[in-house]
Amino acid sequence: MKSNRLERLRRLRGNLPTLKSAQPAVVPVESLDLRTAEDLPYGVRLAASWAWRLLIIVAALGVVFWLLSKVSLLLISVMVAALLTSLLSPVVKILHAKLAVPHGLAVGITLIGFLALVTAGLSIAGQRLGAGFADLWTQALTGIQQIQDWLFNGPLQLTNDDLQTVLDDALTELRGNASNILSEAISWGSALGQILTGVLLTVFCLIFLLLDGRRVGLFLINLLPRRARPAMDGALTRGWSSLVRYVRVQMLVALIDALGIGFGAFFLGVPLALPLGVLVFIGSFIPVVGALVTGALAVLLALVSNGWVNALIMLAIVLLVQQAESHILQPLIMGKAVSLHPLAVVLSVAGGTMVANIAGALFAVPLLAVLNTVVKYLSRRSWEDDPFVAQNYGTNLAGARAPASDLEAAATPAAPPTSSPAPTPRLPEHPEDKNHEH
């Protein structure tokens, strides 16, 4: 019996060095290779880590923008349809909810009424402008004769030979650039074709967004992971509300522009003040180009009808209205409606114009407003107390933090597993020990 126990102790003593050898060996400091140590300061390493990550993000965004530029016509059509949907959806809601009109019929009535209103406004303005220009043709001829008289008898003292030389030079330049002019004409023709295609796509998207806008939104939300759907649904719903407020305020700004320039033309005695106001109202929805074209038309009408003094006064009125829109109406009214600082509105319009010209100026503020609302909603965890989320995803998502903690757990890194102490090795039992115990 003693021999058995001694044998067991010998075997245990033989296993102890093996257990010790499993522990990591301590390397003395003198044996470390200092050449392989990191000798850069912590701030430099941190800045380098941020730098290459930011470069990757910027490169990814550049690829995304490049891909979107290839489908710019489709993208612009969808975004214009979204703006029009935010404008017309309250009308559809009133017809369907309060007047008990079927949803499809309400969409048809709203869309036909909107198109009829736009077409009627443009046709009335066109008819009035055509009739007014016919009456102003004699005044235009008188103005041309006055210009000719100034050229011949004024300080320039031009002669018929000088005018003929100018005309010959112009014809020579025209013949030399015939190919360029033809290519420009072809590009303008293709641009008109793209505009018509974009209009058809916009109308098509507008119909389905008014009919199934909520279903389209749910389709996009269902592409996300299940735990992220309630928060993103609430965020996009709030963003859509910001877009609706933006369109309403933009209509108010356009109305103020139309009234300012229209009444200015009326008090100055400029003809066609009413159609001019209609054109200014429509053109105010197109940044830069709309204001430029309608303002130039107002100044031209004042010049032809009432002379250059009246035209200068009209130009001052147009510039005053446009500056008030750019620096007062847009920043203050628009900023309050979409919860943006006036400086952010001005910079977003300027940056959008630099990046994507007219389309960038048109969509810069609404995109920034939607993005601002979505980011604030998500960062403040507003879906936990949102009645909309509670109604569509259950009350435990609002107020209670149980399901919302799934989102928090997804963003919080998991704690590393705690290492439990290694079990003490157990020696195998010997048959004679069992007999001894028994």
UniProtKB/TrEMBL annotation:
Pfam families: AI-2E_transport (PF01594). Keywords: Cell membrane, Membrane, Transmembrane, Transmembrane helix, Transport. Residues 400-438 are annotated as: Disordered. It comes from the Bacteria. It is a multi-pass membrane protein. Residues 402-413 have a biased composition (Low complexity). The chain crosses the membrane at residues 50-68, 74-92, 104-125, 191-211, 251-270, 276-300, 307-324, 344-371. It is found in: Cell membrane. Residues 427-438 have a biased composition (Basic and acidic residues). InterPro entries: AI-2E-like (IPR002549). Belongs to the autoinducer-2 exporter (AI-2E) (TC 2.A.86) family. PANTHER family: PERMEASE PERM-RELATED, TRANSMEMBRANE PROTEIN. This is AI-2E family transporter.
